Amino acid sequence: MQLKHWGLIALIFTSFSCKKLSDVFPKKTETSTSDNPNAETNAWIYDEMKTYYLWESQMTAKTSTDYTLAPMDYFESILVKPGELDRFSWIQEDVEALTASLQGVNKVVGIRFTPFFADPPLNSKVALSIAYSLKGSPADKAGIKRGDLITQVNGVVLTAENYSTAFSSDNLELTLGDYANGVITSNSKKVSLVRAEVQTDPIQHYSIIEKGNKKIGYLVYLQFLTQYDNNIREVFKEFKTKGVNELVLDLRYNGGGYISSSNIISSLIVKDLKPGTLMNTQEWNAEQSSYYKSKYGNDVFDTDWLNESNNLGNLNRVYILTSPGTASASELIINNLKPFMDVILIGDHTYGKNVGSITLSDEKKRWKYGMQPIVLKTLNAIGQSDYGSKDGFAPTIKVSDSSVPFLPFGDESETLLSVAIEQITGVTAKTQAQNAKIKATTKVSVLNNAYPLDNPKREIRDMYLDKLPGN
To answer: Residue 116: helix, strand or coil by DSSP?
Structure first.
């Protein structure tokens, strides 16, 4: 048995360390192949899945699989109840591109948007409301910002049929629009963008909002990336130094990332932090569980609360802004905290992913495929893991994030944030309006409120480890 070349371990995982999986497990006997050009690759795919897959005991016997399929199709063919039990395992042709993406590097123009019908009740046209531009991206450098509206891409009017493929080109010309009399119309402003590799800075925005005796820390976090762990510690240090006593964590656009980073943020938030107390644990398949427990002890899959000096320490509750794009490592934070403090979810239901994967690639470099099979399930300190369905976590307060144009992050009138402030202060938005002008927005018919970044390739919603269990 051979843990070949690992990549990032996920609830997304891709990059463990510099240790090869073959250093952990003894080598398997190579499976014989026929003249079929896909046989050797498919044998490798099956053997790796049989070793690590969470549901390996339910896999079809190797002799009953179709080795003549192309590797991408073969991988799909051996999944257990795809779309039902296993909604998440996947394969990519280029493991290097996969690894980069899991580390927050993507070739994009750098915008996330929400599509909606621009001409009700006809609904013949679609406009895109910009949720954000990634820091340092081509869109950011061109001045595209949250709340901007796009009506055309490369001169083509957007519709329900074409908006999802409108960003396929590397060279894009965006036509911006204005809202008037209930309809979005194009204006004369056009922005030309060229897709480029962008490193995601996950700290999209943070600020402190003061309301009476409440100091509300507000943080928009996009992806759990280990290289930004110290940056997020500095944000919480500022929150703590300035006396923040309420927290709103905006995860509506966060599809996941490193489990270790999610655990750090959990430990910065939790009430009465007690290092050494169980935070969460993992379940692996029988073979992996037996190996790791025999080598490292029965608690090898347990993670305790971390000793984070900038833990706020005074929170009785935390408000988390959510959407169907809130996934994996974001949901892990929610599950980590629920046994220890009140967690109030504002927005929509989450994605529903309580399992994690690892990236597997061929150490002999015979092919470039990267597999991302589900290998683990997470549970919190009291054994709960009941959000792994398409409904995810249900919101405590359901709020439709469908008012356009989107207001800037930190604006007290912003759709979801305003509800959190109301819950914290007890002052309704209507009462606030007597003292401050509430910015005008309009409810629209949204086509997809979890739409990914502009890269037309599949967006990853996952969790991943940065090291093997026991290391």
So the answer is: strand
0.85 cut: is pTM over it? yes
In the CATH hierarchy, which fold is given to the domain comprising 203-355+373-398?
A: 2-enoyl-CoA Hydratase; Chain A, domain 1 (3.90.226)
Task: Please state, in angstroms and rounded to a whole number, the distance separating the CA atoms of residues 256 and 10.
Answer: 9
State pLDDT tens for residues 43-59. 999 999 999 999 999 99
Q: How many residues belong to the chain?
A: 471
Angle between helices 259-269 and 329-337 (to 10 degrees): 30
Q: What is the pairing mode between strands 403-404 and 342-347?
A: unpaired
Measured CA to CA, the distance from residue 337 to residue 247 in angstroms comes to 13
CA distance 226 to 39: 38
pLDDT at 181 over 70: yes
Domain ranges of the chain: 5-102, 107-199, 203-355+373-398
| Segment 435-466, tens digit of pLDDT | 445 566 788 888 887 777 776 555 667 787 77
147 and 405 in contact (C-beta within 8 Å)? Answer: yes
